[in-house]
Amino acid sequence: MDASTDNTTRRRIALTVNGRTVEAEVEVRHTLADFLRHQLELTGTHLGCEHGVCGACTVLVDGRSTRGCLMLAVQANGCTVTTVEGLAAADGTLHPLQQAFKDHHGLQCGFCTPGMLTTLVELLADNPQPAEHEVRVAISGNLCRCTGYQAIVDATLAAARAMQAPGAAQRPVEAPVLPAARAAR
Amino acid sequence: MSLAAPIISPARPGRSGETLIGKSVPRLEDDALLRGQGRYVDDIHLPGMLQAAFVRSPHAHAAIRRIDASAALAMPGVRAVYTSEDFSPHLVTDRLVVGLPSSHYKQDHHRQVLAADETVHVGEPVAIVLADSRYLAEDAAMMVEVEFDPLPAVSDCRAALAREAPLVHRESPHNLLAEFDMTYGDTARVFAEAKHVFRESFWQHRGGSHSIECRGCVARHDAMEDRTTLWTSTQMPHAAMRVICEILGLHERQIRVVMPDVGGGFGPKLVTYPEEVCVTLAARLCGHPVKWIEDRREHFIATTQERDQYWETEIAVDDEGHVLGIRGDIVHDHGAYTARGINLAHNSAENVPLGYEVPNYAMHVKVVLTNKVPVTPVRGAGHPQGTFVMERLLDRVARELGLDRAEVRRRNMIAADRMPYRTQLKARGGQWVTLDSGDFPGCMAEALERADWAGFPARQAKALAEGRYLGIGVSNFVKGTGRGPFESVTVRIGPSGKVQVLAGAAAIGQGTRTMLSQVVAEQLGRDLSNITVTTGDTDATVMGLGASNSRQTVVAGSSAHVAAQTVRAKVLKVAATLLKAAEAELEIVGAEVLVNGQPARRIALGSIARALAGTAGYTLPGGVAPGLEATEQVIIDDMAFSNGTAVVELEVDAETGGVHFHRLVFVHDAGRMLNPMIVDGQLAGGIAHGIGNALFEWMGYDENAQPVTTNLGEYLLVTSTEMPRMELFHRETPTPINPLGVKGVGECGVIPMTPAIMSALEDALSPFDVRINQTPISPAQLYALIAANAKP
Question: Nearest by CB to A153, which of B511, B680, B720?
Answer without folding.
Answer: B720
